[in-house]
Amino acid sequence: MLILLIVICVVTAVFRPRFVEPGNLANIIRWTSLYGVMGIGVAFVIITGGIDLSIGSMLALVGCLFGVTMAQYNLPPAAAICLVIAMSTLLGLVYGLLITKLKLQPFVVTLCGLLILRGLARATAGGSSVGGFSKLGYLINYEWGSVPVPFLPWINEGYWSFHKWIPSRGDQPGHFALNDAGERIGLDWYDWVPLHPPIIYLAVIAVVAAILLNWTVFGRHLKALGKNEQAARYSGVRTDTMVIISYMICTCLAGVAGVLFSIDIGSVMPSTFGNFYELYAIAAAVLGGCSLRGGEGSIIGVVIGTAILRVLQNSIEMWSIQELEFAVVGGVILIGVIADEIARRIIAARRARQEAALLEKQTA
């Protein structure tokens, strides 16, 4: 998947040099961070073999409640944030109980949740948009630092040259910019890309999630549950508890994402806010290596999968083919998943041959 991300970036930069403008790269990083929070949450559910289709509606409800509690009930922002995240986590508990105790299918439970939460969001907002997030803009837009990235000026301003290039306009052909002495204006070999708080949020959540998934008993039990629930139960794994916790993690991070998206966008329209976000979160997790059959997944893979989707959407805007957005995104996801599955099978077959050869050697 990392190769696919690099290919998309290189191809877009070659034909659309504006892609590597520092401001554009900063926006890609910011939106990748916001979507990545959702993707990590849904990864925990997918690893158990479940699914959550209500994330978009969850974002809408969280955003509406967040704005209403601050505007109408004068709740401090910190208290409002804690309240809506606690509410979203509680909804995950409800999902988990319905799935484990009543044995309902995750698809049905979360599909109903999608409809119910969207309706509650509309009722909370009274059919109008909810605002009042501008005072919290520093949580998203504050520029806390920057990182030097080599060769950006050569691509962006030089159009793949060491000197500043003026593109053609009308009848005037493109030409190199000249100084007063008639010499070409040289470009620096690097540029600074600004960084904003969302990258910190994603980094912290990703590190904690990776530790939880890869270096704890909880993570091992979660993967065992996804591979074979019955075998995990017979091995002493409390499968119902694991499923409930995974849904609580998913909805908790959806609540965090809802708060961040509300602040970033500045207003919440309950009928449209968060539409299709659950599909992007699921697609990012699947692109990142999470198997819909359960039992497999990595956090770094989810982050890379999210970056692929955001870079791809940005590339579509650069190419001005927004009408083909869903077709292009769907096609790339399908190609990526097929390639990843083929690679997995090749690796598995090679490993099986090596194990068979080793066994034959030991018995000889």
TrEMBL record:
Pfam families: BPD_transp_2. GO terms for cellular component: plasma membrane. One of its GO terms (molecular function) is transmembrane transporter activity. It is a multi-pass membrane protein. The keyword Transmembrane helix applies. Keywords: Cell membrane, Membrane, Transmembrane, Transmembrane helix. Its main location: membrane. InterPro entries: ABC_transp_permease (IPR001851). The chain crosses the membrane at residues 29-47, 54-72, 78-100, 107-125, 199-218, 239-263, 326-343. It is found in: Cell membrane. It comes from the Bacteria. PANTHER family: ABC TRANSPORTER PERMEASE PROTEIN YPHD-RELATED-RELATED (PTHR32196), SUGAR ABC TRANSPORTER PERMEASE PROTEIN (PTHR32196:SF15). This is ABC transporter permease. It comes from Blastopirellula sediminis.
